[in-house]
């Protein structure tokens, strides 16, 4: 039995593995709308990630208060993350995305409006930002659930959709802060926040117009598991998904540790040359963006298991170069290669995961995956800081390479076992 066939009630897979609702392999208008809406929303959000702390710095000069505003954006995912699956299950993926977008537009607009009226203080700003974070909780999982509904259950189709969504996030994370940094001196911080509000309104209206109302589930269905922890229980109860989730957490810890270690490495090994630190961090972002584009192309041409296994080797192997006293250029290339390989592995893995889910399990399981992956980030930052302080750069880099190797090896073994049970080769 193939992985695609393991999803009960799924639509028949087209002979060429093309998505449902497409012509000649091209995305349907509905799927294209999901991609465009995700890109516009993510770009606005990333711009605001710079604009809001900058607004606090302009008005108070306090880095502590700016950090508080930043934390308020992330905290709702930690507190409410697993509830997002319940929201998607009750409302449906399309309605969840539309409600999230159209609700966030006026909430974001409150910030520049109150600032103009002289009524914005720190407590009000933190409350607004926390509300924005809460409204965003189910959004990314809903994107993937909706993409699943618009595609065939074939693992290659789902892998390509996930690579597109990941590319949207990587591209926005790369371009959003840079665009905000360029616009703030030209039009002012509040104007950038107004632009973010407009992106949410545009995204919600685009989804309303281009994605049919029946897509992504109508909500309120009895199908699917019930309970806040249903997605976690399903992850733990499936041998492949539990192994994949373990590696996801390990990679989350490794990546955050790597991000913090890069400037420290440049400072310690290259006599405090900030240019080297900047290049190493830039290589992480640029590699992820290039890898997302490559994943979109290769996901339709290379079998998911083969693509994932090859990419996982390329995630771990270059990181061992960081332990060797080599020129800065070699380190930049190694970090870039490892970063580029990550979306090449993630796209087929998410495709296999999505295709493996029984009907009705998508909202809870995908929300659990998003939440657990997000929670791994702050833990990685905290752990990295402690290890750097106590053990130094060399020991931390050993830890980074070891974590990457363990995460990759664990997943490769799981994928080979999955392949033996009928996964596409």
From TrEMBL:
The chain crosses the membrane at residues 32-56, 68-88, 109-137, 182-208, 249-270, 276-298, 305-323, 329-353, 365-388, 394-415. SUPFAM superfamilies: MFS general substrate transporter (SSF103473). One of its GO terms (molecular function) is transmembrane transporter activity. It is found in: Cell membrane. InterPro entries: MFS, MFS_trans_sf. Residues 1-10 have a biased composition (Low complexity). It comes from the Bacteria. Coiled coil: none annotated. This is MFS transporter permease. Keywords: Cell membrane, Membrane, Transmembrane, Transmembrane helix. It is a multi-pass membrane protein. GO terms for cellular component: plasma membrane. Residues 1-23 are annotated as: Disordered. Its main location: membrane.
